[in-house]
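Quick one - inputs below.
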Amino acid sequence: MTERVEQASTLRPMIDEVAREAALAVTVVIAASTLDELRTIEADVLGKRGVLSGFKARLGGLEADDRKRVGQAVNEAMASVGAAIAQRRRDLDAVEQTAVLAAERLDLTELVGRPRRGHLHLVTQTQQRLEDVFVGMGFQVAEGPEVETDFHNFEALNMPVSHPARSEWDTLFVDWGAPGSTVLRTHTSPVQIRVMQTQPPPIYAVMPGRVFRRDTPDATHMPVFHQIECLVIDRGITMAHLAGTIEAFTQAYFGGDFRSRLRPSYFPFTEPSAEYDVQRPDGSWLELGGCGMVHPNVLAAGGLDPEEWSGFAFGFGMDRLPLMRHGIDDLREMFTNDVRFLEQF
Amino acid sequence: MRAVLSWLNEMVPLGSDHVAIADDLNELGLAVEDVVVTGQAVPGVVVAAVQALRRHPKADRIQLVDVDLGDGQPLQICCGAFNMAVGDRVPLATLGTVMPNGMEIARRQLRGEWSNGMLCSSTELGLDGDDGGIRILPAEYEVGRPLWDAMGLDADVVFDLDVTRNRPDAWCHLGIARDLAAWRGLPLTAPDPVITSAGPTPLTVVIDEPERCGRFTARLITGVTVTTSPPALADRIVKAGMRPINNVVDVSNLVMIELGQPNHTYDLSRLQGGGFIIRRARGGERLVTLDGVERVLTTDDLLICDGHDAPIGLAGVMGGAATEIDDASTTIALEMAWFEPTGVAATAARHGLRSEASARFERGIDTEGMERAGRRFVDLLRLTCPDAQLHDLVVTDGVMPVRPAVEVRTAKVNAVLATALTTAQIVALLDPIGFTSTPAADQPDVLLVDLPTWRYDASSEIDVVEEVARHHGYSRLAKVVPPSAHAGALTERQLARRRVIEIMVGAGFNEAMPNPFLAPGDLARVGLPADGLTIANPLAAEESVLRTSLRPGLLRAVAYNESHRQLGVLLFELGHVWRRPTDPSAALPDEPEILAAVLAGRDAREAVRLWEELTLGLRATGVQIVAATPPGLHPTRSAELVSANGPIGLVGEVAPSVLAALGITGRVAWLEVDVDGLLAAVPPSRSYARVSRYPSSDVDLAFVVADDVPAAAITEAVATASADLVVDASLFDVYRGPGMPDGHRGLAYRLRLQSADRTLTDADVAAVRAAVIAAVAPLGATLRS
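Output:
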C-alpha cells in the first residue's frame, strides 16, 4: 500500500515533466531559424535518444495502468512537437525558396544583340499573297522561262511578225538563234501558250513572274519588273465569268468593300478586250490591268479548238501593289537591296 | 487624240455635261486621260485701251498704266508687265473679279500708288497663247465690252483620249461623234457640204507600187489666197493640240482631225511634170521633209514624186519642202490617198518621224472618205477664200484591201458575252456604228455583217462581237464566278521552293533582287568565265549581259551595303540564270533556277552551317561536300556540293582577289545551289522508323587524323561502321596543338548506340567500338591515346 502511494506520488510529476519538456521543445522549434537547426532540434527532442524518447525508456518501471497514462502523455507530447516541427519546416522552406527565387532574378530587357531573322522581298511577299488568293479560288500556279521564243511571246499571241502592236512592247532581244528569234519575255502571257501546249483543258491557272521591257528606270518604271496573269479555259466560259472572277479576286485581295469594272480596250491576244479598274471604298479608281476573252487565234495557236473551248485572261503588274500598300514613292527603292529597306517589311 | 466638245456637238447634240460625256467615252473604250475646260469666261474681265504709260515714282519693276474702259476716263492700274504700247487693247480684270486661280481683284496700293484692277496675261485668264506679258487683244475689239463677248468664244471642253489600236475610226471627231451618237441613241450629222466641181483636174497619177499605195486621189483647188485663219478655226486647231499656220494648212489639219482623212497640199506652180508618180525610193535617195530635215531613204520607203520623178513627199508620213504652199500660192493640188498601214509604220519608225498623218495611216484610214473630205476642204477654205473652186477628183487605184462581209452568229455573241440578245437587238446595236447587217440565207440567227470602210481593224466574227459588247455596255455584263475544275494548289516544287526561302529567312537572310542584267566586265570581275549571253539591243552597255550566276548581283549588293555602313549583311536570292546550252540548236538557252546566299564578314564554315540548316530543313540527303577550287571562290576554303546525280552547287568563301576588286572588306562566305538539284536530293516521302524503347548508351571516340583526310570521310566511316546500332554520330571537338603530330588533328566523336529490340550489353558496346576503330583505320585514323 505504501508502495502504491509512493508510486502514485511520482506519477504526477512525471506527466508534468513530459508536458514541460514538450512546451520547451515547441518554443525552441519556433525559434529555429534554419532547416539545419530544425533538424538538430528534431533529433534532440524526438530522436531515439531525445528528451521525450527518454521518458519512454522509463515507462518499464511503472504499473501497467500508469505506463499507459504516461505513455499516452509522451505520445501526445511527441505529436504536438512533431506538428510544430512540420509547421516550422514549411515556414522555413518557404523562406528558403523565396530567397532562391530572389537570387535568380533576371532583367529580361537586358539581352545583348538581335535575333537573326531575315525578310522576304516585298515582291515575293506580294506574289505569295496573290498566289494564295488564287489558290483559294481553285487556281494552279504555272511558270515559264524568262527568256522566250518570239513564237511564245508574240506570234502565238496573235501578233505575227510585223504586227503593228509589237512595237508597243519595247522588247529586249537576246543574241541566241536567228536574230530576233529570242526575247526577254515582255509579259507573262507566253506562259498561257506553254500551259495550253502542255496541259489539257480545263485550265484554271495563274502565272506570276519576272518580265522585261526596254524602259529607262524611273519612279514608276523598271526594265525588270513582275506581273501576274490569270488564265481560264473551259467549255462555256463567258465574259461574265471574266468580270465575276475579277470581282472575286478584287474583293479577296483588296477587301470586301472594293469593286471592279471593265472598260473596252485592245490587246492582240484577247477579244473582246478590256481594262479593269478597281474602286476603293472612298470611290476613287485604280487602273489595275488588262483582260479579255482569249482570242480564237490564241486558242488555235495553243492547239485548242476555239469552237469547243473558250477562255479569259487577265493580268497586271505586281510591283505597284506593295508600293501602294506601304507608301513607297519610288519603284527603284525596292531594288537597291539595301538591308535598311529590306528589313522594314 | 484630243476631242473638242463644241466640234462633237456640231455632229451630235451631246450637250455640255462633260462629266457624263467622259463617262460615256470611257464606257465606249475611248479612255479619257484628261479633261480640260477651256475658254471659260471670267466675268468682270473687259476690253480696255491703253491711254498712257507712266513710270512708277518709287518702283522700277512696276509701271503705271492709264486705261480707258470706253468712257474716256483714265483709270490707273499698276502693272508688272511692259509689253504693251499706248493704243493697245488689253484685258482688264475689274474690281471684284474672281480670277480662275481664286484670287479676287481689289483696289490696293503698290508702293504708294493705287491700282484699280489688274491687266491680265493669257495664262492668268486660262487662255492659250503667250504675248510675253499682258495679252494683247485685236485692235478691232470694242473697248469696254466683256472680253469673252468680244472674243466670241464659248466655254469648251477638250477630252484627251487614249485611242487604242483597234479604233482607227476614233482618230477623228466624226468617229468619236458616231460612237457617242450610237451609244446615246442620238442622230449623227456628219459634215457633207454640197460643192460642185468647177472643171477637170488635169493631173496624171502613176502608181508603181500598187501593194503599198491602194488609192491615190488628186484634185485642183483654184482661187486660193493664203492668209490667216479666222479665230474660230485657229481656236480649234489650238484645242486639237496643233499650231495655226495659215488658212490652207489649217484647213488641211482640220479636215484630218474632223474626218480622219490625212491630206496634203502642193503648190501647183511648183509641181513639176503635171502629176504624181508613187514609187519606192532608190537606196540612198534623199528628201528634205517639211520639218527641214534631209532624210536618207531606203528601198522600203514609199515616195510621192512629181511628174518628173523627183521626190516631193514621204508617202503617208510627211511632205517635202520643195512643193510647200507659201504666201504666193493661188492654185493647189490636193492629195488624199490610202497607203498600206504596215509600210507607213515601218517608214515612220525607220525615220523616227511619227506625224499626225502617219499615226492615222498606220492604223488604216477610211478607204472611202476622200471625196467628201475634198468637199469639206473647200467648204472650210471658203471661209477665207470665198472664190475657192474645187475641181474633179482624179482617182487611181492600186491594190485596195478586200474586206468581205463577216458571218456573225447570234448564238456566238451570247456565248461570249453571257447575254440573251436577239438577232434584232444585235442588228440595232451594230447599225448605228456602220456595221450594217443582213440575215444570212436560210439562217435567221446568222448575220452577214458588212464591215465599215472606217474600221480597217475589223475582219472577223469576234471583232464584231466586241462591237456588240461595247455598245451593249461592258458595265451591263453579268458577274459570275466560274466553278474551277480543279482544286487550287501549289505544286510540290512550288511548296518546296517556299520552304527553301522560309528556311533562308529563318536563318537570318534577307531576300535581295539584284538586276539580272550585267555589265560586260561583271562576270570576269567575280572570277567567272565571261560567257554570258548578250542582249542585242540593250538600253545601256552596263545592262547588256545576261547573268550566268547570281554572284555578281549579290556581291554588288554586299558592296553597296558596305558603302552605306551596313556590314555583315546576310542576303539570299532565288532566281533564274541563263547559260549557253550544250546543243547550239536548242530553241532557248538553259535557264536553271539557282539559290544563292552571301554571308558578309563570315568564313566558309558559316556557309557550310547554312547548307546544313537547309538540308536539315528540307530533309535533303546524299549530298557530299567535296573540296574543290571553283573559279572565283577561295582556293583552299571551298567545296562542291555533289549529289548522286553530280555537282549541284558550291559552298565556301569568295576569293580574296574578287573581294579586293569589288572593294569588299573582310571575309565573305558563299553558298549556291541549283534548285532542281537540291530538290532532287529530297526524298519524296519518308516512312516512320519506330522509336526504340530500349536504353541507349553513349561512347566517345577521338581519332588522330591527317589534315588531308576530310572529316566528312571519317564521319561517314564512323556512322556506317555499325549502322544497325549507331543511331547518331557527331563530331563534337576538333583539336590542333601540343601532343598532336605535325599535319594532323584530333577529331572527337560522340556515338549514341541503341538497339531496336534489346538492351545493349557491354559486349555489344565493345564490338561497336572495335568496328568503328577498324572502319577508320584505312583512312589512317588512329585512336587518340
